[in-house]
Amino acid sequence: MEFDLKTIEALAPDQASLSAASKLTKRSNWPRLEKNEQQALIWGECQGSGSNPYRTVVDTGDHGYKCTCPSRKFPCKHTLALMWIAATAPASFTAAESTPEWVNDWLGRRRKTTSQPAAAKPGAETGASGKSIGEAAQPDEVTAIEDAAAAERREAAQRKRAEDTRTAVAGALDELDQWIADQLRLGLSAFADASSERCRRIAARLVDMKATALAGRIDEIPARLMALRSEERPDAAIRELGKLVLLAKAWRSAPDDPELKRLVSASETRDQVLANPDAKQVDSHWEVIGEKIETRRDGLVSHSTWLLDLKCPTPQFALLLDFFPASAGRRSAAFTPGDRFHARLVFYPSRQPLRALVAERKGDVVSGAWPDFGLGAIRDPLAAHASHQDAAPWSTDSPLMLPAGAILLDERGAAWWQAAHDPQGIALPVAGTVDQTVLGLDLAATAALWNGARLDLLAAQSGFGRLDLS
Fold first, then answer.
1. Where are the beta strands (DSSP E) in 19-124?
2. Are 61 and 40 in contact (CB under 8 A)?
């Protein structure tokens, strides 16, 4: 059985492991890769942080694996990397003349766990099942007691792993606090120019201490700063570092909170979210208002699809978030901006539920104009953002539904959204470039993302119908 990328992604315990494996394959950490085609085995030695390399072996027939690294993630990043190389660069492996002793040792111990018919004891009467009459007569309670003991041991091991992870993350946040203090001491005026190297070092440290999600966020700070004008970067740096301080403080007060764990260490799986009885569920009509596809520094591509609830009287949004390796190329999108469909969405637990999963899609919906949403009464277009920040001050982008307005250019050629009811007052800067055909158009409503400094336009309604701005 050959590996493909979908199989590897399904085996990965979380996106952080997939990211680590992606980076691992880009470095020359594998001095030797070999395979035994007759036994469907691949193995290799990966140079880690210690003096001795980690030994990793995978059975491509049934996806069994073994690695000598101390990671508590199964499979570990070294195993995923070995699978990844087998899927993307099979020519990297050489046929082995003989199988190493450590591979044979694992294979031999693994075979002992397979079911083998037990030999009957001499002089014992046996039935059709192969058991002696005495063994068959033993009550099932013995097996039940053994199963209960095994389950208790597994639960104890899980609690131990959770406690170890919590201790490691607490230490990571202490180091983050010290790092932020160092940046303030050095001065934020030079932070933006040196942010790439500074953020990369602390992010690598956080990954080692199990704060993988937080490390990914810090790794993206330089890109967010470089997207701004130079005079705006110090204020943006203060805002970004301040959000990290608030997130660390919130995690310390509630380390078991699902939202905070998702932002700091690791996210729940799809099955866990769908099986959560307390998760928010919304059965409604949805429109795809836009998407954002970004290649991250860790080698993963983040694909965000934004949905708008068409039946709610006030603007309500949902985010479908997907990650995949950049080496896999762009995936075919399941949704296209402008699509409308009827579906039941299950939201990840959060103070402001936004990220969701499509639990059940029930069919398409006829297109048309957006509902009114009561936008005529909105005087502060950032009121929804302020409410979102009050509930979760560590969050970054907030979706907004802006009232009537237009996109205009200033004397420097920068784009701004200008409110129609207050042409001399409310105006918000727009990120990136804007299609010249939409400049000056009367927009009845505009969906956008606000990150505290810029609007990322998604879609708008005008006299010409729906406009795709993403």
1. 32-36, 41-46, 54-59, 64-67, 94-95
2. yes
CA torsion sign for 242, 248, 253, 257 is positive
The alpha carbon of 323 is separated from its chain's Cα centroid by a whole number of angstroms, namely 6
Question: Of 282, 340, 316, whose CA–CA distance to 447 is shortest?
Answer: 316
The rounded distance, in Å, linking the Cα atoms of 413 and 422 is 21
What is the per-residue pLDDT across 414-448, written as a single tens digit (0 to 9) for each? 899 998 876 557 899 998 888 888 998 999 999 99
Q: Which two tokens stand for residue 123?
A: 């002089």
Q: 201: which residues sit within 8 A by CB, 6+ positions away?
A: none
What are the two backbone dihedrals, phi and then psi, of residue 110, each rounded to the nearest 5 degrees? Answer: -70, -35
Comparing C-alpha atoms, which of 418, 408, 403 is closest to residue 438?
Answer: 408
| Alpha carbon separation from 177 to 183, 185, 243, 249 (Å, rounded) | 10, 12, 12, 10
Letter for the amino acid at 123? G
| DSSP sequence for 295-358 | E-TTSEEEEEEEEEESSSSS--EEEEEEEEEGGG-PPPPS--TT-EEEEEEEEPS-SS--BEEE
Compute how many other C-beta atoms are within 10 angstroms of the C-beta atom of residue 433: 9
Q: Is the peptide bond before 234 cis (omega within 30 degrees of 0)?
A: no
* Separation between Cα atoms, residue 371 and residue 309, nearest integer Å: 10
CB 57 within 8 A of CB 42: yes
Residue 176 identity (one-letter amino acid) = L
Q: How far apart are the C-alpha atoms of 240 and 234, rounded to whole Å?
A: 10
The DSSP code sequence of 101-157 is HHHHHHHHHHHTTS--PPPPPTT--B-TTS-BHHHHHS-THHHHHHHHHHHHHHHHH
C-alpha torsion sign, points 67, 70, 73, 76: negative
Please state, in angstroms and rounded to a whole number, the distance separating the CA atoms of residues 97 and 141: 50
Position 122 confidence tier, pLDDT thresholds 50, 70, 90: very low
Q: Read off the pTM.
A: 0.69
Peptide bond preceding 349: is omega within 30 degrees of 0, i.e. cis?
Answer: no
3-state DSSP helix/strand/coil % of the chain, to nearest 5 = 40, 25, 35
Residue indicated by tokens 């509630």: 254
pLDDT digits (tens, 9 = 90+) for 28-74: 678 778 888 777 889 999 887 767 888 999 988 888 899 988 777 78
> Side chain identity at 159, as an amino acid letter?
R
Instruction: Give which of 470, 444, 450 is closest to 459, Cα–Cα.
Output: 470
Q: How many CB atoms sit inside 10 A of residue 327's CB?
A: 16
Residue 446, both tokens: 């505009």
